[in-house]
Write a structure and sequence with these properties.
Number of domains: 1
Largest sheet: 5 strands, mixed
Helix content: 25-40%
Structural class: alpha/beta
CATH class: Alpha Beta
């Protein structure tokens, strides 16, 4: 014969308390938060007369300033950083970055499609390669991106001076391209690319007038520079974003 379990008496107040007592859960403010992955993008070499366009994308840890130590004060627009410090920073950024990618668009493609296309193509490749919560591009024109990421792309003028990840991308791209141009200098020493990185320095322009252009030169940009910096409308049907005469002598 089975025995019934002994009944337990529960008072009305205890029953009400058991029902109404809330289950304690951590609040949203107390829950751990994951910092957003902010990807900085920048390009180097857009206004050069020779050599590739190089763009980089970098995602940095939140404590990058602590990791860089004394070098952190140079984490800014690469054009304002001494060459030796740029190289030191590029190595440190590569060591500490959460993610980093570099894209190079060769001269043949620039001559075929224009510098504006090259710039857009470089950024598109980088955004497609790196997954991030936000992409910040230096400048005013939003580059193309995969449909699922375009809403996360933000343009900011002077971003390389304001956003550490963009400054890092600028530095990495600058050192990468300068190294490429120094190597090309060995094949084409007349133009002084080891010092001017393919930009329109006086010695570079003088060499162009004496020995002419080589396969690593950008046809439209050279024609523009040798015609006194005026836009070479007859040479190219490039859009207004494809050639920036004011940057030719950068």
């Amino acid at each position: 014969m089975s025995r019934r379990p002994a009944s337990v008496s529960v008072s009305a107040s205890e029953e009400t308390s058991a029902v109404s007592r809330p289950v304690l859960q951590p609040t949203l403010l107390d829950a751990p938060t994951v910092p957003p992955r902010r990807c900085g993008l920048d390009e180097v070499g857009r206004g050069a007369l020779a050599g590739p366009l190089v763009a980089a994308a970098v995602i940095l840890p939140d404590d990058i300033a602590d990791r860089l130590g004394a070098l952190s004060r140079f984490l800014r627009d690469s054009k304002t950083v001494p060459r030796a410090r740029r190289e030191d920073l590029a190595r440190a950024i590569r060591a500490h970055a959460l993610a980093l990618e570099v894209v190079s668009i060769p001269v043949d493609d620039i001559n075929r499609h224009g510098i504006g296309w090259a710039n857009r193509e470089a950024f598109h490749r980088l955004i497609a390669t790196l997954d991030a919560d936000e992409y910040i591009v230096d400048g005013r024109v939003r580059p193309p991106a995969p449909p699922d990421r375009i809403a996360r792309v933000r343009c900011l003028v002077k971003a390389d001076a304001l956003i550490p990840a963009v400054a890092a991308a600028s530095l990495v791209a600058k050192v990468y391209r300068d190294t490429m141009m120094a190597a090309l200098h060995g094949s084409y020493p007349a133009y002084g690319w080891n010092t001017n990185a393919g930009y329109g320095a006086a010695a570079h322009l003088a060499a162009l007038r004496v020995v002419g252009a080589c396969p690593e030169h950008r046809a439209v940009f050279v024609a523009t520079a040798l015609n006194g910096g005026q836009r070479a409308r007859k040479v190219s049907k490039a859009s207004k974003h494809d050639v920036e005469p004011q940057r030719l002598l950068e």
